[in-house]
Amino acid sequence: MATGRSHRPATRSRGIPEATVARLPLYLRALTALSERSVPTVSSEELAAAAGVNSAKLRKDFSYLGSYGTRGVGYDVEYLVYQISRELGLTQDWPVVIVGIGNLGAALANYGGFASRGFRVAALIDADAAMTGKLVAGMPVRHTDELEKIIVENEVSIGVIATPAGAAQQVCDRLVAAGVTSILNFAPTVLSVPDGVDVRKVDLSIELQILAFHEQRKAGEGGAPAEAEGAVGVEGAAAKVTKPATTADSDRAGDDNKGPDGDVPAVMPA
Amino acid sequence: MATGRSHRPATRSRGIPEATVARLPLYLRALTALSERSVPTVSSEELAAAAGVNSAKLRKDFSYLGSYGTRGVGYDVEYLVYQISRELGLTQDWPVVIVGIGNLGAALANYGGFASRGFRVAALIDADAAMTGKLVAGMPVRHTDELEKIIVENEVSIGVIATPAGAAQQVCDRLVAAGVTSILNFAPTVLSVPDGVDVRKVDLSIELQILAFHEQRKAGEGGAPAEAEGAVGVEGAAAKVTKPATTADSDRAGDDNKGPDGDVPAVMPA
DNA sequence: GGCTGTGAACAGTTTCACAGCG
DNA sequence: CGCTGTGAAACTGTTCACAGCC
Asked: Which of residues 60-79 of B touch strand C (CB under 7 A)?
C-alpha cells in the first residue's frame, strides 16, 4: 500500500503551521465583525477574546504572517482583514459545486457564509432526476450526468459532497477525474483520493460522540463542577472534567484481560 | 474573566488523550461496518486503512483503552465495538435537543447517524411560531418558550444549536441555565459558557476556507503534482502542496513586513 | 511468522516571559 | 508605559522500531 516513499519533514508550505491556518478563518470572522462596526484598531487581547483563543497564541499565529501590528497600539483592522484574506486565498473567486441536494445540501446552498467569503456556488448537483430543475437557494438543481461538464466549464477546483455515504466515493472519483483537487466531505465515509487532492471532512455524529465522551466523564464525577479557563468555551473543548473517576469502569476489563474466551459481551447499544 | 484558578496539568481524564478520543468514533464506524459484514477479527493494518489512519497510530490509540487485541491475530470486532462504545459513553442513551429548525436543523433532525449511535432527539425547537407544530423528521417542532421545560423534563444534557449567529448566544445561555452541559454549535459565533460546559463547534465556511488556502498553494505551483502518503486522504489533510511560492506576495506589504527575517526556506524536494 | 503493545525519538503546538519598539 | 513579536520551555501528538506473545 504505502508507496515506497517514506516520511516527509515538510508539512509547512511556506512556514505557516496547519494549526495556525485552521485559526485564520476564526480571526478573519472576528475582524470582519469589528470592521463592520468601524473599529479601527484592536489589540491582541481583544481580538483573541473575540475569536475565542488566547492572546499569546494569536500573536504567535500572526507572527507567521509577518509583522502586521504596531507595538503599543495593536493591529489595524482593515489591513489585517486584507492580509488574512489574501493569505487564505479569499481575494480570489472560488467556484464550488455541491453534490447531493438533500437536507444538508440545501442547507449548504443556502448558507450565507460561503458567498460572503470568496466562494461562489457554481452548481447544485443531484443524482435524483426528480430533483433536476428544481430551485434550491435560487438555483436550478442539475443532474449528475452533467457533473463533468459543469466542473470543466466552470473550472471548479473545490467540491462539496453531501450525498449519502454509499454514493460518496463514486462522486468523489468523478469529481477528481474531472479536475477537482479539494473536497469537503460531509458523508460519513473515508474517501480515497490520489495524491495531490485534499480532503477535509465534517462529520456531525462524530462531534456529538466526542461531546458524549466528555459528558460521561462529568456525570461519573460527583461534585466538583469541573473547570476551564477563559470564560469562553472554544472549539477544542476538552481539558475539562476534574477527575480520573476510575468509577464507571466497573463492568469489565477492569484489569487487563481482553479475552472473552469464547464469547463476547454482546451488550452493545444497538 | 479568567477566574483566579489558572492552568491545569490534567487534560487527560483517565489517560485518554484528546486526539485519541477524537478518533474513536472513526474506529467505531469502521468496526460497525465490519461487524455488519460479520467479519470476526481485524488487524490493526486493515482497520487503520478502513478508518483512514495509519496502523501505528491506531495501535497506540487502542493501547490507551487497554489490551484488547491478540498478538499474531488482531482484534475481535464485536468486542472492540463494545469497548469503544462504552468508552465513548454510547452504551447509554443521550437525549439531545436541536434548536433552530432551518435547513440545517432539519438536516440534523433527519440525520441517521445520531439515532444509530446512542443519541435520541428529544425535541426540535424553533423560535418561529409559524414552525410550531410542523412535522420535521416525523417530530413536531416546538416553540422556544418551552425550551426550559423540555430540557428539564427530558434531562437533556446535550444541546445542538443550529440557529442564525445572532440568536446563538442567547439560546446557549438558556440551554445552559436549564441544565445543558455540552453544546454542539453550528452557528458561526464564539459562544461564552461558564466553566464545566463543553462547546464544540462545526463551521462549514471555515472548512472551506482551509481548503482554499491549500488550493491556492497548489495553484501557485506550476508542475509537481504534490504528494501524500497512504492512498487515502484523511481528515487533517494538509501536508500537501509542493512549494512556498512566495509569489502572490506582490501587491502589498512588500515593504515593511519582515516575516521570518529573510531566510525563508523556499524550495522543497519536489 | 505475524501482529500487538509500547518505550523512545521525533515533530508539531501551546504557553511563558520578556526584549524591544512606538 | 503598553503592546507586539519571538526565542525558549513545556506539552501534546505522531512515528519508529522492536520486544514479546500467540
From this structure: 60, 62-63, 67-75
Inform me whether the C-beta atom of residue A59 falls under 8 Å from chain B C-beta atoms.
no
Q: How far apart are CA B222 and CA B215, in angstroms?
A: 13
Q: Which three cell numbers stand for residue B203?
A: 463551521
Cα–Cα distances in angstroms (integers) from residue B230 to residues A49, A156, A194, B153, B165, in the given order: 39, 26, 9, 49, 39
- A18-88 is a CATH 1.10.10.10 domain: yes
A122 alpha carbon, distance to own chain's centre = 21
- With beta carbons less than 8 A apart as the criterion, state whether A60 and A27 touch: no
**CA-to-CA distance for B31 and A71, rounded, in angstroms?**
54
The DSSP secondary structure of B45-57, one letter per residue, reads HHHHHHHTS-HHH
Every domain of chain A and the residues it spans: 18-88, 94-202, 212-247
- pLDDT tier, B114 (very low <50, low <70, confident <90, very high otherwise): confident
Grid coordinates representing A4 are 515506497
Provide the pLDDT confidence category of residue B116 given band limits of 50, 70 and 90.
confident
Q: Chain B within 8 Å of A193 (Cβ-Cβ)?
A: yes
Question: Do the Cβ atoms of B260 and A26 come within 8 Å?
Answer: no
- Contacts by A142-145, CB closer than 8 A, 24 or more apart: A144/A99, A144/A171
**CATH 3.40.50.720 holds for B94-202:** yes
Per residue of chain A (270 residues), give pLDDT as tens.
Answer: 333 333 333 333 468 999 999 999 999 999 999 999 999 999 999 999 999 999 999 999 999 999 999 999 999 999 999 999 999 999 999 999 999 999 999 999 999 888 888 899 999 999 999 999 999 999 999 999 999 999 999 999 999 999 999 999 999 999 999 999 999 999 999 999 999 999 999 998 999 999 999 999 987 765 433 333 333 333 333 333 323 332 233 223 323 333 333 223 322 232
Cross-strand bridge partners of residue B119? B94
- CB proximity B57–strand D (7 Å threshold): yes
Q: Is A265 in CB contact (< 8 Å) with chain B?
A: yes
Cβ-Cβ contacts under 8 Å, A11 against chain B: 238-239
CA A219 from centroid of its chain's CA atoms:
29
Half-sphere exposure of B31 (CA within 13 A, CB side): 24
Distance between CA atoms of A190 and A206, rounded to whole angstroms? 13
| Distance in Å, residue A46 CA to nucleotide C19 C1' | 23
Asked whether the domain spanning A94-202 has the same topology as the one spanning A18-88, the reply is: no
Q: Are B258 and A29 in contact (CB under 8 A)?
A: no
CB-CB contact of B106 with B137 (8 Å): yes
pLDDT in tens, B211-270: 999 999 987 755 433 333 333 333 333 333 322 332 233 233 323 333 333 222 322 232
